[in-house]
Design brief:
Strand content: 5-15%
Structural class: mainly alpha
Shape: rod-shaped
Order of helices and strands: EHEH
């Protein structure tokens, strides 16, 4: 018996969960698909860091423009 499938958020993992639900009568499919919490934290962290890197890039550009004047 399969209680849950834990995997990252890629679309091919949804396909495998759907196929398992078709093949195994007692497996409900999507309701028992658990997305990996650490993978989601990693994606969110990368987005946050990217924002700070963009602000740093903009700040460096302004500083360079000020120095050249």
């Amino acid at each position: 018996q399969i209680l849950s499938i834990t995997c990252d958020n890629t679309s091919n993992n949804m396909v495998i969960v759907e196929k398992l639900a078709e093949m195994l009568l007692l497996f409900p499919g999507a309701p028992n698909h658990t997305r990996c919490f650490l993978h989601m934290v990693n994606l969110i962290t990368k987005l946050l860091i990217r924002e700070f890197n963009m602000m740093k890039k903009d700040t460096n550009q302004v500083l360079e423009e000020e120095m050249s004047e």
